[in-house]
Every structure is written in C-alpha cells, then in structure tokens.
Amino acid sequence: MQRMAAPTHHSSPQPVGPAAGGAAPVFSPLYQQIKALITRSLQSGEWKPGELIPSEAELAARYGVSQGTVRKAIDELAADNLLMRRQGRGTFVSTHHEEQVKFRFLRLVPDTGSGQALRMERQFLECHRVRAAADVASLLGIKNGEMVLEIRRTLHIGGEPVVYEDIYLPGAPFRSLTAERLERYRGPLYALFESEFGTRMVRAEEKIRAVNAGPQEAEILKVPVGQALLSVERLSFSYGDQPVELRRGLYSTARHHYRNTLS
Amino acid sequence: MQRMAAPTHHSSPQPVGPAAGGAAPVFSPLYQQIKALITRSLQSGEWKPGELIPSEAELAARYGVSQGTVRKAIDELAADNLLMRRQGRGTFVSTHHEEQVKFRFLRLVPDTGSGQALRMERQFLECHRVRAAADVASLLGIKNGEMVLEIRRTLHIGGEPVVYEDIYLPGAPFRSLTAERLERYRGPLYALFESEFGTRMVRAEEKIRAVNAGPQEAEILKVPVGQALLSVERLSFSYGDQPVELRRGLYSTARHHYRNTLS
DNA sequence: GAGTGGTCTAGACCACTCC
DNA sequence: GAGTGGTCTAGACCACTCA
Questions:
Q1: A42, A121, A176, A192: which is deepest, by most CB within 10 A?
Q2: CA distance B261 to chain A (A)
Q3: Residue B60: in which H helix or E strand, if any?
Q4: What are the boundaries of each domain within chain B?
Q5: What whole-number distance in Å separates Cα of residue A234 and Cα of residue A237?
Q6: CA distances (Å), A28 to each of A4, A8, A66, A155, in order?
Q7: B209 CA: distance to closest CA in chain A (Å)
Q8: Does A172 score more than 80 pLDDT?
Q9: A13-44: per-residue pLDDT in tens?
Q10: Residue nearest to nucleotide C12 (CA to C1')
C-alpha cells in the first residue's frame, strides 16, 4: 500500500509538498485509503450483508499495512454501521436482518413505558410503476420522467393505524419487485431490498414537519379531518452516498412519538 | 494506574475470573477508566468550557499510562462532543460559545436553499419561579413541588414567529438568573448557562409529535387556530447524564422543517 | 524550532468464541 | 487450543500551529 499524495514514512524520496505541480496535494492517511478499499469491496458485493469479512491480520497482509492501520479503518466503518465487530468471532457486514437493528430507521415509539412488545402489521395499498415527478426524480438522482416504483402502505401498531406512507424506488434495480412479493415477505422492507435487490440502506436524512390531515389521510389513519400529523420525508442512501429510496410518510402521534437523540 | 476488577497485564497475581467471590467481576479497560477520570475533571470544573486541557503526554504521565491509552480515551470524549481536538494546538473543552456549534441542538432549518444567513430574534415573554408540576419534577429529577425557573419565549426567524417554547430549569443552580439578565445577553442560552451557571449541556433527548394550535399558540405564532404544529419536548443533560433542562416547544413548520440524520 | 495532535508500526498479552 | 477481536505499550515520524 502506497500513501496517496504523500511519501511513505519509511522512505522519503520525493517530498510532495504543497504547491508541488500546481494540483491540490491532499494528504490522505493510509487508514482512510484502506477504509475506501473496504467500502469498495462492500459496494461491489465481494462481502455481502451478514457475511464474515477476512480477519484484521489477513486484511493487513492483503493491503500491505499493519494490523493497527486496518483496525482503525474498521473502527470507523463500524462506527458508521457498515460493519459489526464481534469479539472472538470476527467482523461482519451489517445487515437489516437482525432483531436489534430492525427499527434503526423508524424512530416512532409508543408513549407508554414500552415494556410491551409491540405487534406491528403492514398493509400494502398500492404497488405500481409510474413516471417520476420532477421532485422525486431530483431527489433520487434520476432523469425526469424515468420510471419509478411507487409503493403505498400503512403500518398498524397494536391494531391501530399509525403510519401511512408512499415509497419511491428507482425502477431499474427494483425491476422485479412485485406486489405479490411484498405481500409474501415477512420482515423489514430494507432486509428484502438487501437480500433480493442488492441494495443496502446505510444512511438516511429526514425532513419533518407538521401537517393537517386531509380527507383521505384522515380516513386511513382513523383521525378527524384536520388532525395534526407528523410528515416525515426520508431519503435513504446506499454505499457511496447514492440515494436509492424516497419515503413520504404521515405519522399519527396520538399514542406515539418520534424520538431523537441530540449529541 | 491500576486496572479495575482485573489484574494488570504486566503481572497476573490473582486472576479474578468470573464468579470469583460472588460479586460481578466487571472488566473495565484502562482507557475507560481514564475517560471517567477526565470526565470527572470536566464535571468538577478543573478544566472549564473553552479551556485547553493538558497535553496527551502530560495526562499519560499524570495517570501513569501510555499516551496511546490517553489518546483512545480522548478519542471517545471527542466523539461525544465533550472535547475538541485541534491539531498543532491541543485539546479543548467543548463550549457552546462557537459559531459552528451554535445550532447543535436546534434542528429547525429553513426550507429554502439556506444560502441566506438567517436573522434570528428572541423575545422573552415570561421568566418566573414556580413549584414544579409532577411531570416536570420527575423529568428533571427533583422533588415534587420544588421550585423551578420557568422561561417562556419566542424565536423569530427572518422576522416571522417560528418557535414558542417553555423552558424549565431547576431552581437551585439557576438561583440568580433574572429576566433582566436574559434580555441583556447576546448569544445562545446554553452559552450563558455554561459561563455563568456552571451548567454545560452535553446531550439531549427529544420527543416529537404533531399537535393542533390552540388559540393562544395560534396568536403568538400567527397561524390559524387548529394549524398543525410540531411539538418538541427536549430534555437536556449535563455531564454524568444529569437532567438539567426541560423544554417544551411548538415549531411552526410552514417555511421550516426539522432535519434529522439517521445512521 | 518547540510543542501539539495525527499516523503508523511491531509486538505482547487479554477476553471471547468455537471446535 | 486455535483463531478472532480488544487492549496496552513504546517508539518513530508526519502535519500543523505559534512564537
């Protein structure tokens, strides 16, 4: 492994200092380069979600760096939730197939002491392909008018309707996703996307506001027209900050709230 | 520095294994102990917000461990935003007196491209002492009926009323905070709390829901009665997870939204 | 140039999991 | 007992800041 835009610290043949050649001489630490290489292997599918990646020693040999350097790279990837370390076992690619991580992206929790395990039911109302509207296309980074998959669904918690949302997915990668497949699948959608469509959601950004329920939403969520609802627009990203899903949801916050931690 | 509940790795006199003596033999890494010691120094005020703490080498000598161990402790404290490292200068205690960190806790941003610097104005409507209601006392960890300081205020952004909130502070530490002092102060409240009341906000938890505006809120935020508003309840913690502030805010999300990042 | 944090290495030993 | 990640050390050198 060679340093990028900087000499190795074992030999200093050509000290590429600032303004050497005119281009910006960005210093990139070795462990960042290793991090990028590992990310590339994740992105390319060399190591799939849930799988064990090579040990730190193996990776160190493979990249020609010390174990400590690989370790620091993996530390950061684990902090970003791309990898999961398990002492004595090894390092695994993170996956949405896991009890503990199942609600990493749904921040809605019951008001009550939550000692109760909550029964959650999905209901798919729509699943069809449409031409992307300008705003949707722009957020998903596709061409205006390109095909997208639109899924409309509700979430019932403890028997009550709580979430009503529209999900937009780029048409190409999700070509083969059907309503029938959705109905049949048990488990988080993100787990399905990951196992069958090679798309792992890694990060998301949400824009939250309060809106008054219209007639349609009111009926579906069983609230009066005009009832205040939480509007949550979520854009999810896969490896390499590529946007791959847009969700527009309405949350009924009568008996639930959106929980957030600031630090 | 001696390891806690575990022998040092230089000598192994009494391997305190599981179930040795009946007490839970919790293994605590050295760097965690260092982290706790540094936190204690922050909490005790030995190093105040904005100040430079001793160099890694000095701390290593002081605690009798290697620099690498101190480094790992500081790494985590920096990740938690308790400390800030600056290459070539040293490590500083985080502070709310800083442009970049000023809006770390206010997640409301304008819908527009935000290229514009937003003019923000505060207006204090109330500032008095009251006996804490049961729910407030419970959240702040004080006795029911103890005195708390209640501050009511609005925030105008770009000339429009956007936030209306109630702030509850425990009476004792904020004994000397007056309406007059609030009016006179320029800058974030958290910066004032930190410099004059020795209370630094380190972390917070928010519960968010949507509510319909009542007559009073509607008038203050200049929206129709019944308008959907974001209700944000924030509990802020100081060092050692001690709750020290409760805020109940209503945000008008006509031209702003609450931004959140999931990872 | 002195002092700080930042990176990288090499090697030792510990804690944990699984065979 | 072998193999993994986790901790700790010691030492070297680099990048950056400031006087």
A1: A42
A2: 5
A3: helix B56-63
A4: 30-93, 102-258
A5: 10
A6: 6, 11, 17, 45
A7: 5
A8: yes
A9: 333 333 333 445 567 999 999 999 999 999 99
A10: B9
Q: Give the chain B residue nearest A259 (alpha carbons).
A: B207
Measured CA angle at B252 (ends B259, B208), to 5 deg: 55
Q: Is the CB of A13 under 7 A from strand D?
A: no
pLDDT digits 0-9 by tens, A75-117: 999 999 999 999 999 999 999 998 777 788 999 999 986 566 6
DSSP annotation of B240 reads: G
Report the alpha-carbon distance of residue B208 to residue B228 in Å, rounded.
13
Distance CA B231, CA B125 (A): 19
What is the nearest CA distance from A61 to chain B, expressed in angstroms? 24
Q: Could you identify the residue whose CA is nearest to the C1' atom of nucleotide D3?
A: A88
Look over chain A and give the mean of its residue pLDDT values, rounded to a whole number. Answer: 89
User: From the alpha carbon of B63, which nucleotide's C1' atom is closest?
Assistant: D8
> According to the model, what pLDDT value does residue B1 have?
58
Q: Using an 8 Å CB-CB cutoff, list chain B residues near A112.
A: none
% of chain A residues with pLDDT over 70: 88
> Does domain A102-258 match CATH 3.30.70.1340?
no
The CATH number of the domain covering residues in A30-93: 1.10.10.10
Instruction: Pick B208's closest partner by Cβ from A204, A212, A257.
Output: A257
- Cβ A207–B107 below 8 Å, yes or no? no
pLDDT at residue B26 above 70? no
Look at residue B147 in the predicted model and tell me its pLDDT: 96
Nearest C-alpha neighbor of B167 from the set B145, B194, B190:
B190
What is the per-residue pLDDT for A115? 60
- Whether residue A119 is predicted with pLDDT greater than 90 in this model: the reply is no
- On the CB side of A251, CA atoms within 13 Å amount to 27
Nucleotide showing the shortest C1' distance to residue A57 CA: D4
- Cβ contact B234–A263 (<8 Å): no
Residues in B closer than 8 angstroms to A253, CB to CB, are 208-211
Task: Evaluate if residue A178 carries a pLDDT over 50.
Answer: yes
The average pLDDT across B211-217 equals 98
| Segment B103-126 mean pLDDT | 84
Is the C-beta atom of A9 closer than 7 angstroms to strand D?
Answer: yes
Q: What is the pLDDT of residue A12?
A: 33
